[in-house]
Write a structure and sequence with these properties.
- The chain has about 425 residues and is α/β, with parallel strands linked by helices.
- It folds into 2 domains: about 180 residues, 3-Layer(aba) Sandwich (D-Maltodextrin-Binding Protein, domain 2); about 200 residues, Periplasmic binding protein-like II (D-Maltodextrin-Binding Protein, domain 2), CATH 3.40.190.10.
- Strands 1, 2, 3, 6, 12 and 13 form a 6-stranded mixed β-sheet that branches. Strands 10-7-11 form a 3-stranded antiparallel β-sheet.
- Helix 8 packs across helix 9 and helix 17 packs antiparallel against helix 18.
- The longest helix is centred in the N-terminal third of the chain and has 25 residues.
- The N and C termini lie far apart (about 85 Å).
């Protein structure tokens, strides 16, 4: 009897020794890369979302990596070249075309069609469209809208409850709000960025509002040097050199305190993160800060951009990768991520999440989303955007006329499109 018990125990131990490795091998490993490494987001993901995901998906061994935005493109290129790309990774919508044209990411239309709540995303699902196919699940976004100081509006006789809605109203308000003293600009009526990627983004809003576009329908030719595009850039140049509502040669702001909070700027085009900066570093001033709905000329349009998750074409575990994407694009996950970043949620059902419901300015960004338009999804976009940045800067500094600058940019852009 004792002998039989010992034999049974030995067999049981052998089975256990075999079963444990077997169970571990049955787990599917999914590598998930987040873009950016702000501590509030990392804490929210690591402490709330990952434990919840693992509890609901015990068959998936999820490994989360946070990659700084500045390193993201390089690390992804290296991982794809080495055949070790993450199963799921985050990037901006402007990167869609590059990944899709290189056949590095999986089309998601079939997966999205099976989602019971796909309609909740509305137009934001189109942020990652390339040649009619969707490649990105949007997670958080941002938009460019006009920020202004209500107290300074009252100071010059403007109604802070009726912000500029057209180009003409914007120019008139900027002129009234500008203060020059002894040949020195004390307060810019409208601050306009003149270097980097921001100038073409501001100009893009005006281009679309004026009925223009970047490219022809089949993306074979640049058309942003159209009369509509030239008029949009001329409007910017006139604000600088004719109306003198801004000065591109000086920098406003003090350290972390944004220029609109110091009183040196009355209006500027801003993203939701700028609201957070004012609220953090100048909370007493924030009660005077307002956000205006998108401007209109021929159309009411504003530039919005979303970041989201892509599935690598090379993933060997696509069903599990999609399950991971489904969880991290769920209402709970998006609310947690957007709440940590103070960003715009892509889901309509989250339009009144707590931090937005408590902030009238963020509500305006959400309300403006039906007028949202994103940068073109073509592989050459980043190169052409950089060309535009260079020539728009020349026009803003008076080195070229708006027409000369856009014609030159279009010529270089056409060569990039040919390649």
């Amino acid at each position: 009897m004792v002998r039989r018990l010992v034999q049974a125990l030995v067999v049981a131990m052998l089975v256990a020794c075999i079963a444990v490795p077997g169970m571990a091998a049955d787990k599917v490993k999914i590598n998930l890369w987040f873009a950016g490494n702000p501590k509030p987001m990392m804490d929210a993901v690591n402490n709330e979302l990952v434990p919840d995901f693992k509890a609901a998906n015990p068959d998936i061994d999820l490994e989360v990596t946070f990659v700084p935005w500045g390193d993201l493109s390089t690390k992804l290129a290296t991982s794809f070249a080495g055949g070790v790309a993450p199963d799921v990774f985050m990037h901006g919508q402007a990167a869609t075309a590059g990944f899709a044209s290189s056949d590095q990411v999986e089309p998601l239309d079939g997966y999205i069609a099976a989602m019971p709540d796909a309609a909740d995303f509305g137009v934001t699902l189109d942020a990652g469209v390339y040649f009619g196919k969707r490649y990105m699940m949007p997670i958080f976004g941002s938009g460019w809208l006009l920020m202004y100081r209500a107290d300074q509006f009252k100071e010059v006789g403007l109604d802070p409850n009726k912000p500029p809605a057209t180009w003409e109203e914007l120019r008139d308000a900027a002129k009234k709000l500008t203060i020059w003293q002894g040949g020195r600009l004390v307060r810019e009526g409208l601050d306009l960025p003149s270097t980097g990627v921001n100038p073409p983004q501001i100009w893009a809003c005006l281009l679309w509002q004026n009925g223009g576009d970047f490219f022809n329908q089949d993306f074979t030719k640049c058309v942003f040097n159209s009369p509509e595009g030239v008029e949009a850039l001329q409007f910017i140049v006139d604000l600088i050199h004719k109306d003198k509502t801004t000065d591109t040669s000086i920098n406003m702001g003090q350290g972390n305190i944004p220029s609109i909070a110091t009183g040196e700027v009355a209006m500027l085009f801003a993203v939701p993160g700028d609201c957070a900066a004012v609220k953090t570093y100048a909370p007493d001033v924030y009660k005077e800060v307002r956000i205006a709905p998108p401007l209109a000329r021929k159309k009411q349009v504003a530039l919005y951009a979303f970041n989201g998750f892509f599935m690598s074409k090379s993933s060997k575990h696509k069903p599990e990768a999609w399950r991971t994407m489904t969880y991290f694009s769920s209402p709970k996950a998006i609310e947690t991520i957007c709440g940590s970043l103070r960003s715009l949620p892509p889901r309509q059902s989250l339009a009144n999440m707590s931090f937005i419901a408590e902030d009238a300015n963020l509500k305006t960004y959400v309300k403006g989303m039906p007028s949202a338009r994103g940068n073109p999804n073509i592989p050459q976009w980043v190169k052409i955007r950089d060309v535009l940045s260079r020539y728009i800067e020349k026009a803003m500094y008076g080195a070229m006329t708006p027409k000369e600058a856009l014609d030159a940019a279009a010529k270089e852009g056409d060569e990039i499109l040919k390649k």
